[in-house]
Amino acid sequence: MFDSDITERFVAYSPAHLISLGLIFAAVLLLFAFRGPLARRRPASGRYALAGLLAACEILLNVWYVSNGVFRPEATLPLELCSISLYLSVIMLLLRSRLLFQIVYFTAIGGALQALATPVLGYAFPHFRFLEFFAAHGLLLLAALYMVWVEGFRPTLRSPFIAWGAVNAIAAFVFAVNRLTGANYMFLARKPPSSSLLDYLGPYPWYILSLEAVALLLFLLLYLPFARSGRRGREPARAPSP
């Protein structure tokens, strides 16, 4: 399970993929169902637990890279959008950062949903990489939703544009890294080999411009529930978590 040899390749929407999606969906439903008790009983403990689990996923992944001799700057640096969201999520959870929430809510949910629907993954269940991939992306969803349902954070009308600007700033840095290393982080150099949303957005480099529009539209859709509720980004009055 922990070695780098591939005995069976990942197949999208195989039983293992669908079960993994089902388990993540069940975890989201459980978080929603218990949001009230969690908010009343030391919500900081939940934040720290999620931060610890996310950090553990990233640490174990890098241990696996090194121990199997597959760590390469052009392939294994944490420069994919979900990897960057993971690091930001850990800091957001530990510091209860409203500023990072304005970014992570959109990048974590939008990025994780895309990754879970069309995984760029070479390893099938029960390989470590399969388990780590779905655990990390599921935890990204839970981290963002925890801040909404338990901590009472809300994005504002400006938040989608803040997140979109942050993604573009990150992409500019990642593009430079790609040019220096020959990498393809955030798929800014070419499309992934497996099927993905990018297949419908035109050839390189035009799909990058299409993806800009899709990202902004997705961020606005993720804000829509809060616009309809009329909350406009205001948090309920409550004492800060310890």
TrEMBL record:
The keyword Cytoplasm does not apply. NCBIfam families: intg_mem_TP0381. The chain crosses the membrane at residues 12-34, 46-65, 77-96, 103-124, 130-149, 161-186, 206-224. The keyword Amino-acid biosynthesis does not apply. Keywords: Membrane, Transmembrane, Transmembrane helix. Signal peptide: none annotated. This is Putative ABC transporter, permease protein.
